[in-house]
Amino acid sequence: MSTHTVILVPGFWLQADSWADVSPVIAEVGHQVVALTLPGLESVETDRAGIGLAEHVAAVVAEIDRHDEPVVLVGHSGGGTVIHAAVDQRPEHVSRAIYVDSVPIPHGLATNANLPSEGPDLPLPSWDVWGGPEGADLAGLDEAALANFRARAVPHPAAAASDEQQLSDDRRYAVPATVIITTFTRQQIDEFIAAGEDEVAELPKLHDVTYVELPTGHWPQFSRPKDLGEAIAAAIG
Q1: How far is CA 53 from the centre of its chain?
Q2: Which ranges in 73-219 belong to alpha helices (H)?
């Protein structure tokens, strides 16, 4: 089996260590794993003024450029927006893009401009935003896991959530993609596409896209880390 460098990009409020229980599963089959902490998420005290989506994309592109061979990009949630823009900038240097409970956001759309911010900071909201601890998005996370999540959370740069996606190279459509769905089903994704939902407009344009259902909440790196790692490794092949 050929080995790859796998770059893991976390979603909102999380650092590189959010992949701690996933990375070893991918590494066990021989891949080199690089988990990133995006700019502005280094610590609670970090100054997030002036950090937006472009800075997050630039950090991923810089990591791609550090490797001689094409890499695999994995983005969770808002990290999916980031890796799709990185694919757009380096289509010839990405062998596969893997979206974990996320989709490749189209040009001109923001990941989530509606979350409540405090100046340049976007703190982790109350669990009520996701329907409370019993909500589907938080499935698989018990009280201790939720407390650990909140304790480790870092305010996200607000601009990174509200900035519009910037894409310009149609070669991105030729990069193979895998969408690991944890809070939706393939049937629901197909229904969103058929309804012409803006957020999924890129999916039917991809030349090679595979869907994998991994039922759990929105944070499978915490609720089903081993299964997520195995799904990522299987997607790489």
Answers
A1: 13
A2: 78-89, 143-152, 158-162, 186-194
On the question of pLDDT at 1 being above 70, the answer is no
Q: What share of the chain is helix, strand, coil (3-state, %, to 5)?
A: 40, 15, 45
pLDDT tens for residues 150-162? 999 999 999 999 9
Q: Are 22 and 113 in contact (CB under 8 A)?
A: no
Strands 121-122 and 156-157: antiparallel
What are the domain boundaries of the chain?
A: 5-236
Residue 46 vs residues 120, 126, 227: alpha-carbon distances, Å:
11, 21, 33
Q: How much is the pTM?
A: 0.97
Distance CA 39, CA 43 (A): 10
Distance CA 57, CA 83 (A): 7
Round to whole Å and give the CA distance between 171 and 199: 19
| Rounded to 5°, angle at Cα 59 from 197 and 86 | 40
Domain 5-236 architecture: 3-Layer(aba) Sandwich (3.40)
| SS3 (DSSP) at 131 | coil
User: pLDDT (tens digit, 9 = 90+) per residue, 158-211?
Assistant: 999 999 999 999 999 999 999 999 999 999 999 999 999 999 999 999 999 999
Phi, psi (5° rounding) for residue 19?
-95, 10
